[in-house]
Write a structure and sequence with these properties.
Strand content: 15-25%
Radius of gyration: 36 Å
C-alpha cells in the first residue's frame, strides 16, 4: 500500500479513503437536515401550534356582573366601583390583591331547603345555597333565592354551619324558617 507522509506522521491510503467517505457522509447528512426542517427538533415548523400569551388582559368587569346576575349558583354580592383599570397591573411587579391564604373556597351549591308555614305560596319554600368560607372551615356562607320571578338572592347572616331542623330568620321575610338539608353524595355499597 502506498503511504502519504507529512513532516512527522504518515497516512495509509486506505485510511485516507475512509476519512473521505466519512466526510462525504457527514456532508450529505447535514444537507438533509437543513433541507428538511420538520425532522430537526430545534427548528419550529409552520404547522405546529404555538401558545401566545396575551400581554393586555381583557376587561371582564362587566361580564362578571352579567354572569353573577344570571347564574343561580353565584353568591349574592355586589362589585366595587373600582374598575380593572384603576387596579395595579398583574405583571409580577405589584402586590397581589384578594389572594386567599387558606385555600380557594369551593363553589356555592344547593345544600337544602328552608320551609315556612306561611300564607305566601311563593316564599313557603326557599332553596338554600351554601359553602364553607375556606376548606376545612366551620364558618359557612349561605344565601337563599326568593320565589319571585327575578329569583333575588338574599344573604343569610348565619356564620355557623346549619343543621337539619335549625330555625333561622331570613332578612326581609316574616317569621322563621326551618332548615332541611340534603344528604351528602357519597359512595354507596352495591353488593355485586
Amino acid at each position: 500500500m502506498t503511504k502519504i507522509c507529512f513532516d512527522k506522521f504518515c497516512f495509509n491510503l486506505k485510511n485516507i479513503y475512509i476519512i473521505i467517505i466519512v466526510l462525504i457522509g457527514l456532508f450529505i447528512f447535514c444537507n438533509y437536515v437543513i433541507q428538511n426542517p420538520l425532522d430537526n427538533p430545534q427548528k419550529k415548523c409552520a404547522k405546529c401550534i404555538t401558545r401566545t400569551f396575551i400581554t393586555n388582559p381583557i376587561n371582564t368587569a362587566g361580564m362578571n356582573t352579567i354572569r353573577s346576575n344570571n347564574n343561580m349558583i353565584s353568591p349574592p354580592e355586589r362589585s366595587y366601583a373600582l374598575t380593572r383599570r384603576s387596579m395595579p397591573p398583574q405583571n409580577g411587579n405589584s402586590i397581589p390583591i384578594n389572594t386567599p391564604t387558606r385555600g380557594e373556597p369551593t363553589n356555592f351549591q344547593k345544600v337544602g331547603v328552608l320551609t315556612n308555614n306561611s300564607n305566601d305560596p311563593d316564599n313557603a319554600r326557599l332553596p338554600l345555597f351554601g359553602r364553607p368560607k375556606y376548606p376545612g372551615s366551620n364558618d359557612y356562607d349561605y344565601y337563599v333565592m326568593d320565589g319571585s320571578r327575578n329569583g333575588n338572592k338574599i344573604a343569610i347572616d348565619s356564620k355557623k354551619e346549619l343543621d337539619t331542623n335549625d330555625e333561622i330568620a331570613v332578612p326581609s321575610f316574616n317569621g322563621s324558617y326551618k332548615v332541611s338539608l340534603y344528604s351528602y353524595d357519597q359512595p354507596k355499597y352495591i353488593p355485586f
